[in-house]
Specification:
Length: 609
């Protein structure tokens, strides 16, 4: 518009200049009457031309203004269309948390250093023959013959001194197991040493980007990108202290701290259709299997996953098929979901993947989630899962303190990992099946008492061991599914999880929680958000209290809390090995650190939008 107005002004200015030049440059004395008449006629003609030019300029300006208005309207429509299209395609949600923990371990048990060094000391001389041990001689040993050799030690010699001269490096499994059995029979197994450990301050950052998209009325997508790191660390690989949490594996890539790498925690589609009057849905992909109910209370969030967190809190790939039965059964919230997942793929990337017959089968699991009742105040949910062909490990990376290896002649070598080399772990054996079952009861007491939320979740597990692990280290100890010393026996385990959340001034919440697990309790909660270990896998008890204070509603809040772990039995969360009462742990039970009591104080600030 401004450019058009400028053009009109320039034209008028030019014509005016020409007019005045004609007037002032023409000799006045030469102007005759006829010439004056001619000049008047020319001026009249010029005025008419100027008038026509002004009319054309006005028409052009109006046309230009109309075009510009139309262009602006088109741009506005395009912007709205593009924005509408973008928001229709995908919506994003961000959650970011910074947390500080103060963790204190009391009475950690560990085998004495001299016993551990025995695995790196050569087997030495056979006292019966006074010659180096042969494979045949070692394989002919028995606990009784080893007990006799212990009795032949010179007066004053201790087991520690004997091990320092005749260790386990280069020995056969028969020799090592016979020696350990003889030491047990002679009461010569040393006690585990005790020590305390403190991490006064450790900070973490946790990031989630949630993605949702409605592709059509019956097709949708959901996903999550996640990052979880400790301040000052992005190595992504931990030193193995005997816990699954020390291994970087498919089930915990983004649920435990593994550096500043963004991982795809979940990604799946959901297709809806009706079978008669029953709405159904089918979903396939990387499952929303972490942070399930009732963890939403302590996380101050909505339910974060499908399986109940008392038995499954683990990243995996799989499928589900759901039936909405609310209208059919006339029961509020009634629903039924079938679930399937893969925990380990044996024929991909492993040392035996291209063999004619695989040494290990895939580890899979399936089950159902049934919502029996849910009216938004009270709900009852049941979850059952069966795990087939559980393996003695998963594909993952870690830093092993030592590398055990079984040679072709049956002898074992043990090498200290002095160079800090990263190892790729893979399963070696299918050790059996197990079942898990839980029921979650939740209610809000606002209608009968006050705005108090309470929940109660009893659970059950059952193991069916099938084989001893062929992993060199676990094989030495005869470990299988919740079994040791080659004794394959099934066991039932039990757990209870309960809590109450009270309203506080200024919109705050006070939560009190308690959980207990029996000796043989086992679940799949290795992706639980904890720097210690999954509290819901604990064989013992855990107390927790927390206070949540909103700052900007639910978009920004701070949490102050504390936990007390009281372990009763060893191996919480680990399917390998028979649990041992912590108070009775000896050196052979503590090749890796055994936890007893753990205190944790934490404070966090969470942004969510």
């Amino acid at each position: 518009m401004k450019d058009k107005i400028g053009l009109r002004g320039k034209c008028l200015l030019f014509i005016s200049c020409v007019f005045f030049l004609v007037i002032f440059l023409s000799p006045i004395s030469a102007l005759a009457n006829s010439e004056v008449d001619d000049l008047k006629e020319k001026l009249k003609t010029l005025e008419m031309q100027i008038k026509k030019m002004e009319e054309r300029l006005n028409t052009t300006e109006k046309s230009t203004a109309t075009e510009e208005k139309q262009i602006q309207e088109i741009e506005d429509r395009l912007n709205k269309t593009e924005l509408h299209s973008a928001t229709d395609k995908i919506s994003l949600g961000i959650e970011f948390r910074t947390r500080g923990d103060s963790i204190h371990y009391n009475d950690i048990r560990i085998a004495p250093g001299w016993l551990m060094n025995g695995f790196f000391t050569d087997v030495g001389i056979n006292p019966m023959t006074m010659a180096p041990w042969t494979v045949a001689d070692m394989n002919s040993t028995t606990p009784a013959s080893m007990l006799m050799m212990l009795g032949m030690m010179p007066p004053g010699m201790t087991v520690q001194q004997m091990i320092s001269m005749n260790g386990f490096n280069g020995a056969t499994k028969t020799y090592i197991q016979s020696m350990m059995a003889a030491m047990a029979a002679a009461g010569a197994i040393p006690d585990a040493e005790k020590y305390d450990a403190d991490n006064d301050t450790i900070f973490t950052n946790k990031f989630h980007m949630n993605m949702k998209a409605k592709v059509s009325d019956n097709l949708s997508f959901a996903g999550r990108l996640a990052m979880y790191k400790v301040f000052g660390d992005s190595a992504g690989v931990k030193f193995n202290t005997g816990s699954f949490g020390d291994i970087f594996l498919d089930g915990n890539t983004s649920s435990l701290p593994h550096g500043d790498t963004i991982h795809l925690e979940r990604a799946y589609f959901n297709y809806k259709s009706d079978i008669g009057d029953i709405p159904t849905s089918f979903s396939l992909g990387r499952r929303p299997a972490t942070l399930g109910a009732p963890l939403e209370y302590r996380n101050n969030s909505l339910e974060g996953g499908s399986p109940l967190a008392t038995i499954i809190n683990w990243q995996f790939d799989g499928a589900s098929y759901s039936l909405n039965l609310e209208d059919t059964l006339d029961i509020p919230g009634a629903a039924f979901k079938l679930c399937y997942g893969v925990g380990f793929e044996s024929d991909w990337g492993n040392s035996y993947s291209l063999n004619a017959t695989s040494a290990v089968d895939d580890a899979t699991f399936g089950g159902f989630i049934a919502t029996l009742y849910d009216d938004d105040l009270t709900s009852v949910v049941v979850n059952y899962a069966h795990a087939w062909d559980i393996t003695d490990g998963f594909v993952g990376t870690m830093l092993m303190p030592f590398i055990p290896f079984e040679e072709s002649d049956g002898t074992y070598s043990f090498t200290k990992n002095r160079g800090g080399y990263i190892s790729r772990m893979e399963a070696s054996t299918n050790i059996g099946d197990f079942d898990m079952f839980t029921i979650l009861l939740r209610t809000n007491l606002s209608e009968i008492f006050s705005d108090i939320d309470i929940f109660f979740a009893p659970s059950w597990s059952k193991t069916s061991p099938a084989a001893i692990s062929r992993n060199p280290f676990y094989s030495l100890l005869g470990q299988g599914l919740l079994s040791s010393n080659g004794q394959l026996e099934g066991h039932d385990g039990y757990s209870v999880y309960m809590g109450a959340i009270f309203p506080m001034p200024f919109g705050g919440k006070l939560g009190l929680e308690y959980n207990w697990g029996s000796k043989y309790w086992i679940n799949m909660t290795g992706a639980e958000d904890s720097l210690i270990a999954s509290k819901l896998s604990t064989r013992g008890q855990v107390f927790e209290g927390y206070y949540i204070q909103p700052v900007v509603g639910d978009k920004f809040f701070v949490t102050l809390g504390g936990q007390y772990y009281d372990y009763k039995y060893t191996g919480s969360g680990n399917p390998l090995g028979a649990p041992v009462e912590v108070s009775n742990v000896n050196a052979f039970d503590a090749f890796f650190p055994v936890l007893d009591k753990v205190w944790n104080l934490y404070m966090s600030a969470t942004l969510r939008f």
